[in-house]
Structure prediction request, 699 residues.
Amino acid sequence: MVNYIIRRLLLVPVLLFGVTVLIFVMISFLQPVERLALYMRDFPKNEKAIPALITKYDLDKPIYVQYWNWLVGKVDKSNGERTGGILFGNFGYSRSASQPVVELIQRRFPATLDLTLWAVAPEILVGIWLGVQAAVHHNGFIDQAARVFSIVGTSFPTFVIGLLLLMIFYAKLQWFAPGRLSDDFTRIYEGATFNHYTSLLTIDSLLNARFDMFLDAIRHMVLPILTLSYISWATFLRVTRGSMLETLRMEYVTTARAKGLPERDVIHKHAKPNAMLPVVTLAGFSVVGLLGGAVITETVFNYPGIGSASVRAATSLDVIAMLGFALFIGLILIVAVLVIDILYAFVDPRVRLS
Amino acid sequence: MAQSVPTGDNALLNDTVSDRKIGWLERFLGPENYRILVGMMKTPASIAGFTLVLFFVLIAIFANQIIPSVGRDAYSIPRDGFKSEPQPMGTTWTRNAPKIPFWYKAVTGKDKWTHIFGTSEGQYDIFYGLIWGTRTAFYASILVTLSTLIIGVIYGSIAAYYGGIVDMIMMRVVDVLSILPGVLAALILAAIITPLIGKSTLPVMIALIAFGWMGYSRFIRADILSVRERDYVLAARVVGVKDSRILFNHILPNAIFPTLILASLAIGDVVLSFAALSFLGVGVEIGYADWGQLLSFARNWITSLNTYWYIIVWPGVTLVLFVMGWNLIGDALRDVLDPRMRGKT
Prediction:
């Protein structure tokens, strides 16, 4: 076990290095002038100053020099001031928002986290429930319906589902709305009397005892959550069903039935725990996948998270901001996958012994 | 008392094996792959899937007969004016209308083109976009799938064949490239290279290729690792066959079939990713005949989608049917490939 964890931890620096190289390779596609945004907030007004600035920040030097500067920043020899340097938390400046990328991340990421955390439970639980039902009623009506759903479900792209949901529940029925909050509550949220404890909207509103605001936030998240989890349901259904069918054929399940246990106990106490192993891996990765799904979902629902911010940066060619977001998401995913792998080793002894 | 018919094993063998004709196809594919092919032909799901895919193939081939191209570039959707509000279905097509094809009068009973599925924001005709977009979908997805397949197979086989440190380094590179979510990575790369090579289908395709081949290399690597240990590979090595020849002539042909299947099914996914990226607004020029592009026109009309439902429903249905065709085939294939099903067809 310890061995496995150590081996897995050793991989982390490799991945971290790899991601920084990957992002930097993309940065180096840019012109030196565009790369100035790594070190300077505002684009120089004076055209003639540009060549001097490029030399100042080593943007005409070999690529490894630039990579190093990008990592640790460039220290001004005269006053010892450090500019840039992702290791010091400076991801450069967004040209379109005209502020540091890290500040943008601080403002946008809580919204994405909020949405993702709320999407985890419906995504996993509904998917597993569907899969178990399909397996228990093998070849019955529920199974066939589930199978049709899993094919139709995977065929719907996120943005089509999102648009259709908006068409029905927003434009037609007016039950839910896009965005993150209604205008009235946005004013309260930004007002002076509202305490920002965690910067997660739903939790903050509860801590401030604003239940109406909490409900409003949830109301705005229902459709994005539905869109995010919908695609995974089909996958969960398929994996759970297959694994469950296999387990139900095992001899110990027959034994349990033979000794007269009620069918409910056979399924939920004996078969289900063992059938959940492959589902656990899937659950881990689908939580990770939520971050990827956020890119499209947030854009469709106009939800102000880091995903829609990346898309806006991409379409307005604000490349430094976009790559900053990508670097941040990459770092989070490396940690998340590490946690999942280690947790999985605890659950499944086969992993740590191999 | 009638003589009992001998039912020993030998008799059974005579019946089933020696009398069964082995066609050229079975000889060519080998018994296992042939079984898969036959299994595919018998499953209703895969027949439905093949029908759907065939339907789209026909649309792509006869696009110019269904709705003749307008203007110099057939792939830029003709605009009936410049008003931004979408026009409902059945509105008469006044400007830039295509020629009347042979089927039109018989089916609709009209002499002049109308917007069959309405127009989207900026008076782009939806029907035209869908028909010609089918070509874009096939063109982009086949090219992307082929390229990712080739890159992935070559990369994965080199890693698997040499093993050791080479394998380790190469697979870590794959790990790194797989960290970022696919859509995000492709979005970024497409956004970066679009200014460099201009707006077309190319940037998105390059981005999808750059971040799409890792799955194949992992897959083929695992298969090669198992084939590599076979005796005939050892035999080839003993008689002194070159490394590259062993890899490409002896190992790959025996390991590649599952990867090929995986690739043929990925076309639906590639079309989805392609549409997603142009929906998000990178890559192609505005008004390019492409399904994702058509859907992205709807983004400014979210509050009035109950009036303008046709600007998302028709492109959405088209995209879903296309992907569903591939998914149906894939689902049937999964059943046929399931080892527990072996010998049942």
